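Sequence in, structure out. Go.
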Amino acid sequence: MATNQCVGTNLSLRPVLLFLVILLTNFCALAQTSDDVHIVPRTTNDKSNLGTGPLEPSAQGTKDPTRLRIKVDVVLVPVRVDDAMEHPVMTLTKSDFALFENDKAQEIRYFSADAGPASIVLLVDVSKSMTDKIDSERAAIAEFFKNADPQDEYFAIAFSNRPHLLVEDATQSLDEVQTKLTTIEPSGATAMLDAVYLAESELRTAKYSRKAILIISDGGDNSSRYTLRDIKRFVKESDVQIYAIGLFETFFFNTLEERMGKRWLREITDVTGGRTLTVNDRAKLPAAAAEISREIRNEYVLGYYPSGTVPNKWRKIKVQVNSSTNKSPLRAYYKKGYISEEN
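Output:
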């Protein structure tokens, strides 16, 4: 009789035990899900999580969140033109340009030689390798600001082990940015690629349609969650021009990251229509920063209305410069395309 009672008791406990197992399993699954952090373009003013947590491409949804898709009414193409000596040429007229989309000639409906204000992100390397170069880096930024348009807006991001915002919101105060830079003590590794991703995300809320990023670094990356391939795809499909100043003072680099740094910077900047300047002496950093600042502001803007665009497709852009008044060969730098989306 006792045996039967024991069996009955065990049978009555089985549903309760099963319920507890299911509850515990669901709790564990929920805890694991909450640890997955993805940086996506900011849509609110809450910046409490920016620059923190792992940077991982989101796997949710059918659309790639890092890809810029433009609802096309008019396409604006910033173009920088240099002569054979790499000096900017700002004497051209609309008739000196020819513009193509997917090899089809486009009528230039908008033309300006006054590019106007821009939204600019400064990416400042404050890793340990910059310890004895930080003063030159600050001087370079001060020189960059000397050519600033009073209406420009700035974002400032410092990066070492991971990127973080120096200024919580976009600012037009140059003093605020420079003051923040004086408080930084270099340390840690280098997460340059993650910093580029954060900069692009910040520019989604930019005030102006003209957007640029300036990277100042001694090259290399040894701490990012993103890969070079990820970032190249990302910047190719965004509407931001990226410029870089690479400081490489020694011929014999100490690490693989330093050896690859110069190539990485060029691969990132060239695909956006910007460029990389390299210097072999920290004393040359301010002059390089001043040169890039002038380049950003010495641009033409060409505009056209695209026709027959297929949604979510890469649209190739080509710009030709043919000036009868300039005898030396001219070279145009510009974004090579964009992703279209249905209106």
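Check: Residues 119-297 form a domain with the Rossmann fold fold (CATH 3.40.50.410). The first strand starts at residue 70 and ends at 71.
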